[in-house]
Amino acid sequence: MFAIPLGPEGAELRPLETWHAAEFLAHVERGRDFIGTYIGFVDAVVSEDTARDLLHRYATKRAADEGYLYGIWTGCERPGGGTLVGGVLFRVFDAATGVCEIGCWLEPAGTGRGLVTRACRVLADWAFHERGMHRVEWWAAAGNTASTAVARRLGMTREAVLRESNPRGGVRHDMEGWAVLAHEWDAPKDGAPRA
Ligand SMILES: CC(C)(COP(=O)(O)OP(=O)(O)OC[C@H]1O[C@@H](n2cnc3c(N)ncnc32)[C@H](O)[C@@H]1OP(=O)(O)O)[C@@H](O)C(=O)NCCC(=O)NCCS
After folding, report:
1. What range(s) does the N-acetyltransferase domain occupy (predicted)?
2. Cα–Cα dist 151/139, whole Å
């Protein structure tokens, strides 16, 4: 019902809600191996019921103002409303301290077009400008260069490395913490408007 255009290819950012369970499961099945290399939520999504459970957890977080989940759809100009290819989220949202964390994922068909970078800008704009948040964080495995490239594109600073803190796929990944502060977000970027 509510959709924010994400560029010229009929891509849209919309709330990803409990009633999307079947569509969410189909998307996870298409992207399971790629997404699951670095993030674990796909392990919990193995049926329509478990897909609904995850979406419902985020609906509960949203109701408590503690987290928000959005999907990225492409081909929205086509009949049927497009294809869910990924998402962005406030994994953590703490209005009391003004600190939140954005996360993201795409199935392979959605990559390489700037969709996540644009979607994250929408979330960060909302966090800083509408919600008065002070700090947006981003956590990524050091080897996940596609993810750290998004953090860099968002103007974030790499602040920390938690060595071998995240066991996934038989490897203990170093985790990098990135963040951007409110006054940095609004600072001009080389005189150019954000794409
Ligand atoms: C992390 C992840 C979402 C990044 O995907 P992505 O497609 O590289 O990110 P974006 O949607 O922002 O697109 C950026 C790419 O589109 C290109 N691009 C095209 N137009 C663009 C635009 N207008 N703005 C920004 N980038 C654009 C960029 O050059 C970049 O491609 P490149 O890496 O070949 O240079 C993806 O790799 C993924 O889902 N990985 C698995 C799950 C995961 O690791 N999630 C993050 C956990 S921390």
Report:
1. 11-178
2. 9
Query: Is 35 touching ligand 1 by the criterion CB < 6 Å?
Result: yes
In 3D space, the residue among 64, 152, 75, 60 whose CA is nearest the CA of residue 109 turns out to be: 75
Protein residue with least CA distance to atom 5, ligand 1: 111
CA distance 176 to 161: 4
Whether 168 shows a pLDDT value over 50: the answer reads yes
Give the atom of ligand 1 at the shortest distance from the alpha carbon of 116.
Answer: 11
**pLDDT tens by residue, 52-70:** 999 999 999 999 999 999 9
Report whether residue 116 contacts ligand 1, using a CB cutoff of 6 Å: yes
- Pairing status of strand 99-106 against strand 135-141: parallel
List, in sequence order, every residue forming a beta bridge with 172; answer none if it has no partner.
167
In this structure, the number of other CB atoms found within 10 A of the CB of residue 167 comes to 9
- Residue 135 Cα to ligand 1 midpoint, Å, equals 22
Q: Which fold has domain 4-185?
A: Aminopeptidase (3.40.630)
- The percent of residues above 70 in pLDDT, for the chain, comes to 95
Q: At what angle do helices 115-125 and 145-153 cross, to 10 degrees?
A: 50
